[in-house]
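STRUCTURE REQUEST FORM
Protein name: Cell division protein DivIVA
Source organism: Nocardia aurantia
Requested output: structure tokens
Priority: standard
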Amino acid sequence: MLTLLLYVLIVGLVAGLLFLVASVVFGRGEELGPLPEGTTATVLPATGISGADVRALRFQQVLRGYKAGEVDWALTRLAARIDELETQLAHARGEQLRTVFGIEPDSGPADRSTAGPESATAESQPGSRP
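Status: completed
Returned output:
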């Protein structure tokens, strides 16, 4: 039993010495310095932000979470992109309404006054059935 204990102790000492020698020879590796003040590692493309770009976002961590300036910048960029896409979608839907149905996109449910007095009376009375 004593022999087994000596083997384990010797193997542990040899492993510790090898670790110390490797640490001294190779060091801790190349550490990156901190980013200069006012710069950020957060990146979004100038145009055409995609879902993969949003999923790849990384923010610098500080004592209380993420850097607020980086998060605000990213949210502003994403909000602008969403607004741009909604405008494009509304324009495309308007074109589709004009070409397919021949109507303007603004005329819709608000234009009920042309239905006649019977429908207006029936709609104004709760509980009445047409």
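Reviewer notes: The two ends are 98 Å apart (CA to CA). Residues 115-130 have pLDDT under 50 and may be disordered.
Form closed.
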